[in-house]
Amino acid sequence: MLVHLSIKNYALIDNLNVAFTNGFTCITGETGAGKSILLGGLSLVLGKRADLSSLRDKDKKCVIEAEFQIDTYNLKPFFKDNDLDYEDRTIIRREIQPSGKSRAFINDSPVTLDILTRLGSGLIDVHSQHQTLQLTDNDFQLKVIDALADNKTQLADYASKLRLYKATSKELLELIDFQKEANKEHDYNSFLLEELQAAPLKLGVQEELEEQYEQLNNVENILELISSGHQLLNDEQVGIVSLLTELKQVANRLSGFGSQYADLNQRIQSVFIEVDDIASELQNYQEGTEANPQLLEEINTKLQQLYDLQKKHGVQEVSELLQIREELSEKVNVTENLEADIERKEKELAVQKVALQQAADVLTAKRKKVVPDLKKQLEDSLKALGMPSATFKIELFKANDFKVNGADGLTFLFSANKGGDYGELKKVASGGELSRIMLTIKSILAKYENLPTIMFDEIDTGVSGEISGKMGDIMQAMSKSMQVFSITHLPQVASKGDHHFKVYKQEEGAVTKTNMKQLSSEERVVELAEMLGGKELSDSAMAHARQLLN
């Protein structure tokens, strides 16, 4: 419930601080006193967009703060989901800077206007004459039926299945759209993939081919160099092998004269073995190296294929070509498997549709069961509000598609007079009749739902004094289980309140200010008497006021 409201520098309000308690609170005041200003300030806290013209003093910021007792509202999940600190006594603050910038806070944590609006809708239901149009909305009408049917669990189950069904439907449409586009590219991608698969692609292949190409392309020069090396090693007179043979013999004789010579001999023996091995290897190279124009052409063709592919795909490495080949392979495989994927997704969607329809059928059955009860409660309540012949025709029918609240369409027709034709509420009900119907529906909802604080803004407009008194009785009854506010011009309603506040204007020098105060018992008598007979208080008006309060 709303326990405290503070408004600073808003419209005609300079600095207002008001505390509220539970029960039925009535707010009265002369036309133009500022009741709408009070409601406008509260609406800003609940998420309404700010307007710079709202500032009383354009050089100061406007601050509106409301404190709510929310321990019975089951809002902890909301706070957790939005990373906010939960407090049983939650404070919402809205600031409008002189620059026009607006900021919102929940328990001192800055929040977006969207978060503020969503929280505000769960704290106060502000019912104005404009909101009476909700009555003509099928979704609102179904909400009333669902409250009577206690469909909260069933609606949650249906919503869960609907989310899954819609997600799968979206995935199926995306697959179909992707298939259309993929088919256009499939032939081209397949051609590119075949080109890459035909190429000798593996890591290191380019370096290997380039090395082979260099050797085959320079075979004569290589043979000449090998031959020169072989001659330097094996010349009978001055060849390195021949000279090392002599050196080996010298070292062998020296080795008998001491360990140092033995070590030297060993090293020379090693050098001889290594050089002799090199000479043999050069001999093998000389015998194994020969010109091979055909192999050279084959290698050149493979290299040119690699170079062409790199140029075509705008890359410089074989590794990049391998990655492109892998990506193309995936695209081609996906395209070729799309038909199977679509078929599988269609089967999955069909199963989900059956489950969703079953959940919708459960809702429909429970709704149909309570429609007669809703019809009776509405008609009985309206009889007490001066509409003895009011009747409703409420019928459910199968909708063309799954909606957010089920698969039901709804015909919600009304007739105010006996023998009259039934029609849609917005077409056949007057403003006063709509107000009484909405009040009746809200009172019925209060029996079945844990409604937040509700504020009726002149819901009694257009009704007689006798009927307004009965409307006040209904609001008073509602206040036994919730906090109820009524902004009213009628003394019959104001007298029903547990608490009575008056909004008034006062002039301070050249400035007019709006203020608000809670009335004492005697002040209530005077206020009601003025509402009954005007500023000139008569004994009869005072007596009538006391009678209303008693």
Automatic annotation (TrEMBL):
Q: Which organism is it from?
A: Zobellia amurskyensis
From the UniProt record, give one GO term of the biological process aspect: DNA recombination
| Record flagged with keyword Lyase | no
Q: Which gene encodes it?
A: recN
The UniProt record lists the RecF/RecN/SMC N-terminal domain at 4-510
Q: Point out the coiled-coil segments of this chain.
A: 325-355
- UniProt entry tagged with the keyword ATP-binding: yes
The family assignment reads:
Belongs to the RecN family.
A Pfam match: SMC_N
What GO CC terms are in its UniProt record? Answer: bacterial nucleoid
Give the protein's biological function. Answer: May be involved in recombinational repair of damaged DNA.
Q: What is this protein called?
A: DNA repair protein RecN
GO MF terms, alphabetically ordered: ATP binding
The record's keywords, sorted A to Z, are:
ATP-binding, Coiled coil, DNA damage, DNA repair, Nucleotide-binding
Lineage of origin: Bacteria, Pseudomonadati, Bacteroidota, Flavobacteriia, Flavobacteriales
